[in-house]
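Async update (no meeting this week)

Hi team, since we skipped the sync, here's where things stand on the single-chain job. The sequence we agreed to prioritize is pasted below, unchanged from the tracker. I ran it this morning and attached the output directly underneath so nobody has to dig for it. Comments welcome in thread, and please keep replies under the output.
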Amino acid sequence: MGRPIIGITGELEAARWGNWIREAVVSPVSYTRAVERAGGVPVVLPPVPVQAVPGLIAALDAIVFTDGRDLDPGLYDEQPHEQNDPPDFRRDRFELALIRAAIDEDLPFLAIDRGMHLLNVVRGGTITQHLPGRLGNETHRPDPVKLTTHEIQLSAASKTGRALSASAAKVSAGHRQGINRIGSGLLTVAWTQDQVVEGVELQGHTFGVGVQWHPEEGDDLALFEALVSAADAAIIASAAAAASAAADTAKSSTSASADSGDGVSRKRDRGGKRSHARRLPPAGSLRPVRACDLNDLGSRIEDHDLRR
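Output:
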């Protein structure tokens, strides 16, 4: 079985090559390296129009929602704090649609920092835009140059706690925002001594984990390995369902068999949720396959105009 295809959200920024300056899809290489070292195939996802989301969900085996500039506070009906980043409306639109689809299709995902805020907002939660103001201290004021470490407590029974094999940990982070009101269906699984939420999980989801810290910046790949394992398990389940559907087709009536012997299966059918129909090879020729190949994914992305 091939490695699972893991999407990594990126953003569009001006970049320089020699004398050329062009808008480019950018993503810190630490995410790509972490996914590759954990056993996945990393694919950076530009913020394309939302019409592309169903195709991406069908092609990917898991997603990493990465950090970046602050979410638009209008998404949770608040005015921006004076220290907020200017919002990236294009990225916000794309990632909101992408995470909604990942939830609907039970696609495994890991949401990091901004990604965790995105998950909370899409579930109806809100964000504290300036933690130093709420807490009355500078504990959660990020260093402008580097990440800093702090201690967190973990629910040992959670997916996050089991992945890290710990009930407490030191993590690297750099944030001044955090979850205020927690979203529907989310369970707090990590927190600081001053009760700032550091990790959440989406209940009933195969692997829907959000963390406030940056696991891609350290040497412990446990959370990325857990994400890849969840994607592998989903691929195996999909292949088994495909084989079962093909076997059922082979046993069908003569009139049905005359219909070329092909089976119709679903890429994902986790928890009875809606999934994308996919044609199968003729019965007896099935083999484990990945959900897509990189050329197919690339062609899907190139078909869309990345401009506003």
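Quick observations from my side:
Residues 262-308 have pLDDT under 50 and may be disordered.
The CA atoms of residues 192 and 207 lie 23 Å apart.
Reply here if anything looks off.
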